[in-house]
Amino acid sequence: MVPQHPADRDGARPGRFNRLAEHASNFTSSPAFFGVCLVLVASAITAHLLKLPTPWLLMVGEAMSAVSLLLLALLKNSERRAEHAIQRKLDAIAAALLEIQRQEPGEASEKLRQAISMEKQT
Known about the structure:
Helix content is about 80%, strand content about 0%.
Protein backbone atom coordinates (compact mmCIF):
# COMPACT_ATOMS: atom_id res chain seq x y z
CA MET A 1 0.00 0.00 0.00
CA VAL A 2 1.45 3.35 -1.06
CA PRO A 3 0.49 6.30 1.15
CA GLN A 4 -1.40 8.99 -0.73
CA HIS A 5 -1.08 12.70 -0.26
CA PRO A 6 -3.74 13.82 2.27
CA ALA A 7 -5.28 16.20 -0.26
CA ASP A 8 -5.74 13.35 -2.75
CA ARG A 9 -7.36 10.84 -0.39
CA ASP A 10 -10.84 12.26 -0.07
CA GLY A 11 -11.54 13.66 -3.50
CA ALA A 12 -13.49 16.91 -3.67
CA ARG A 13 -15.08 16.57 -0.23
CA PRO A 14 -12.79 16.62 2.83
CA GLY A 15 -12.93 13.52 5.03
CA ARG A 16 -13.54 13.28 8.75
CA PHE A 17 -9.87 13.53 9.65
CA ASN A 18 -9.36 16.63 7.50
CA ARG A 19 -12.39 18.32 9.03
CA LEU A 20 -11.20 17.38 12.53
CA ALA A 21 -7.69 18.61 11.72
CA GLU A 22 -9.10 21.90 10.42
CA HIS A 23 -11.18 22.46 13.57
CA ALA A 24 -8.25 21.49 15.79
CA SER A 25 -5.95 23.78 13.84
CA ASN A 26 -8.38 26.66 14.36
CA PHE A 27 -8.56 25.89 18.09
CA THR A 28 -4.80 25.57 18.53
CA SER A 29 -4.28 28.98 16.98
CA SER A 30 -6.72 30.57 19.42
CA PRO A 31 -6.02 32.43 22.65
CA ALA A 32 -7.94 29.73 24.58
CA PHE A 33 -5.41 27.07 23.55
CA PHE A 34 -2.55 29.37 24.48
CA GLY A 35 -4.17 29.60 27.91
CA VAL A 36 -4.33 25.79 28.15
CA CYS A 37 -0.63 25.56 27.28
CA LEU A 38 0.19 28.28 29.78
CA VAL A 39 -1.65 26.34 32.50
CA LEU A 40 0.27 23.16 31.58
CA VAL A 41 3.63 24.92 31.74
CA ALA A 42 2.73 26.69 34.96
CA SER A 43 1.63 23.40 36.52
CA ALA A 44 4.92 21.77 35.52
CA ILE A 45 6.91 24.60 37.07
CA THR A 46 4.75 24.56 40.20
CA ALA A 47 5.09 20.79 40.54
CA HIS A 48 8.87 21.10 40.46
CA LEU A 49 8.97 24.05 42.85
CA LEU A 50 6.72 22.25 45.34
CA LYS A 51 8.83 19.09 44.97
CA LEU A 52 5.76 16.97 44.38
CA PRO A 53 6.18 13.18 44.21
CA THR A 54 7.55 11.69 41.00
CA PRO A 55 4.18 10.33 39.77
CA TRP A 56 2.78 13.87 39.72
CA LEU A 57 5.80 15.16 37.83
CA LEU A 58 5.47 12.32 35.34
CA MET A 59 1.77 13.02 34.85
CA VAL A 60 2.40 16.69 34.06
CA GLY A 61 5.30 15.80 31.76
CA GLU A 62 3.25 13.18 29.92
CA ALA A 63 0.39 15.64 29.43
CA MET A 64 2.82 18.14 27.90
CA SER A 65 4.31 15.41 25.68
CA ALA A 66 0.87 14.34 24.47
CA VAL A 67 -0.06 17.92 23.58
CA SER A 68 3.26 18.32 21.73
CA LEU A 69 2.72 15.13 19.76
CA LEU A 70 -0.81 16.13 18.76
CA LEU A 71 0.40 19.57 17.72
CA LEU A 72 3.11 17.99 15.58
CA ALA A 73 0.53 15.87 13.75
CA LEU A 74 -1.72 18.89 13.21
CA LEU A 75 1.16 21.01 12.00
CA LYS A 76 2.25 18.38 9.48
CA ASN A 77 -1.32 17.96 8.20
CA SER A 78 -1.72 21.71 7.80
CA GLU A 79 1.66 21.98 6.08
CA ARG A 80 0.81 19.24 3.58
CA ARG A 81 -2.56 20.78 2.72
CA ALA A 82 -0.98 24.21 2.22
CA GLU A 83 1.82 22.72 0.13
CA HIS A 84 -0.67 20.92 -2.09
CA ALA A 85 -2.79 24.05 -2.56
CA ILE A 86 0.26 26.16 -3.48
CA GLN A 87 1.46 23.55 -5.94
CA ARG A 88 -1.95 23.40 -7.64
CA LYS A 89 -1.94 27.19 -7.99
CA LEU A 90 1.58 27.23 -9.39
CA ASP A 91 0.66 24.51 -11.88
CA ALA A 92 -2.35 26.53 -13.03
CA ILE A 93 -0.23 29.65 -13.46
CA ALA A 94 2.41 27.71 -15.36
CA ALA A 95 -0.20 26.11 -17.61
CA ALA A 96 -1.78 29.51 -18.34
CA LEU A 97 1.59 31.01 -19.16
CA LEU A 98 2.31 28.10 -21.46
CA GLU A 99 -0.92 28.70 -23.33
CA ILE A 100 -0.02 32.35 -23.77
CA GLN A 101 3.51 31.56 -24.85
CA ARG A 102 2.60 28.85 -27.37
CA GLN A 103 2.28 31.44 -30.10
CA GLU A 104 6.04 32.04 -29.93
CA PRO A 105 7.73 29.10 -28.20
CA GLY A 106 11.13 29.88 -26.70
CA GLU A 107 13.41 29.11 -23.77
CA ALA A 108 10.96 30.39 -21.14
CA SER A 109 8.22 28.21 -22.58
CA GLU A 110 10.45 25.14 -22.37
CA LYS A 111 11.36 25.92 -18.74
CA LEU A 112 7.66 26.19 -17.89
CA ARG A 113 6.98 22.84 -19.60
CA GLN A 114 9.76 21.26 -17.55
CA ALA A 115 8.40 22.78 -14.33
CA ILE A 116 4.95 21.31 -14.99
CA SER A 117 6.31 17.87 -15.88
CA MET A 118 8.56 17.93 -12.79
CA GLU A 119 5.46 17.87 -10.58
CA LYS A 120 4.10 14.84 -12.44
CA GLN A 121 7.40 12.95 -12.00
CA THR A 122 7.59 13.35 -8.21
